[in-house]
Write a structure and sequence with these properties.
Layout lengths: L4 E3 L3 E3 L5 E5 L10 H9 L7 E7 L7 E7 L5 E3 L1
Antiparallel strand pairs: 1-2, 3-4, 4-5, 5-6
């Protein structure tokens, strides 16, 4: 399913101009064990609901965008 990302600097753009940076989630503390860091870095919730994600506009302005997107429908409600 095609969708567009509305970059505040460049306007509506194809998602292929962006690099997915992962879900926005809280990093473990400095004293966290290896398991906590592995879960943070490599595992995603991927629930079919709205989630906050990082997207990098690699082929545009070079900015990181925080996007709220429904991962089941690709509906974007906030950038």
């Amino acid at each position: 399913m095609a969708f567009l990302i509305n970059c505040p600097n460049c306007g509506h753009r194809n998602p292929y101009e962006f690099t997915f940076g992962g879900e926005c989630k809280q990093a473990p503390g400095q004293d966290a064990d290896m398991k906590a860091w592995c879960e943070y870095l490599f595992f995603y919730e991927n629930m079919p609901v709205f989630q906050d994600e990082w997207w990098y506009h690699a082929m545009g302005c070079g900015e990181w965008l925080k996007i709220r997107r429904n991962i089941a429908t690709h509906e974007i409600v906030e950038v």
